[in-house]
Amino acid sequence: xxxxxxLFVRRCYRSLYGFTKKRLLPLRRAITATGDRLRRAGxxxxxxxxxxxxxxxxxxxxxxxxxxREGIIIADPSGKVIRLNEAFTRITGYxxxxxxxxxxxxxxxxxxxxxxxxxMKEALRWQGHWSGEVRSYHRDGTELALQLSVSAVYxxxxxxxxYVALVSDITHxxxxxxxxxxxxxxxxxxxxxxxxxxxERMRQAIESARTHRHRFAVAFIDIDGFKAVNDNYGHxxxxxxxQILAQRxxxxxxxxxxxxxxxxxxxxxxxxxxxxxHDCEPVLERMLQAASAxxxxxxxxxxxxxxxxxxxxxxxxQETETLIRKADQAMYxxxxxxxxxxxxxxx
Length: 347
Fold this sequence. Notes:
- By secondary structure, this protein is α+β, with helices and mostly antiparallel strands.
- The protein has 3 domains: 17-53; 58-174, PAS domain (Beta-Lactamase, 2-Layer Sandwich); 186-344, 2-Layer Sandwich (Alpha-Beta Plaits).
- It contains 11 helices and 14 strands.
- It has helices spanning 27-54, 58-67, 86-92, 96-99, 114-127, 171-185, 195-212, 226-233, 235-250, 281-292, 320-336, and strands at 8-14, 20-26, 71-75, 81-84, 129-137, 143-154, 160-169, 215-224, 258-263, 266-274, 295-297, 300-302, 305-313, 342-344.
- A 5-stranded antiparallel β-sheet has the order 4-3-7-6-5. The chain has a 5-stranded mixed β-sheet with strand order 9-10-8-13-14, sandwiched between helices.
- The longest helix has 28 residues, at 27-54.
């Protein structure tokens, strides 16, 4: 066949005015044009079907991205930011240009330990999503607590095309939670551990002493003559005296020891890591000295003292309640002897 021979087909077109026009096109060009139209039509039909199934159109997705209160980040498989919304810049204080193309792993906007990212990557690899709390920093240096939810988006062959992350600022929620936890575990006046936290710390100390075969001392501290302070100067002065005494006594104990307030003018200390009972005597003597030092409040000077009773694990008990009760009994022996002294449980 002659290679210069061209084949033509007759194509019909409808003009803007409704007239039908005929035109000759080379066969190859006609086939190509028809294929392109069919391909475009197929792509458009597929897109319409997908949007119909998901119920999401491009305009709606753009609206959600722009107006969502949660921060939205789209990152490539390496973790570099492709796109982020205004909410994320508002939460972190960083502009779009400062984050675009940056890796959040090394950016202060989302700062965590390497082990954290390893765990996240493993979860994304096997489950396709991860959620949890992360520590972050605002552009002004303020620490943030963020709730982060990350999902992997896969291509047709199963490869990860990009990641989508939703970010919520939970800083105020975490602060409120910490305040409630502190209120539940700390004395409001002295900021010392209350009964609940004191009991838990002592339980842990007893378990540690049992494991390492050490002694553990419980000291029950009662302030001598405190009632007269309230009667003579009022409860406001009395509260201030308790605050000062709490600070002074706390300064006498070691870092691993615990001091808590049971209520009123009664305090309990837990002294850990003792080989022999007399190992705690220097700490107890410092407590007596701290309680006996003069306290000046305005034009008033108050001088008090303390009676201290001591009980030891394992000699005097195996449980927190038992040891506190035995130390309380020893404290009353000290008070009956005139106060301002130590007394050890005898049984």
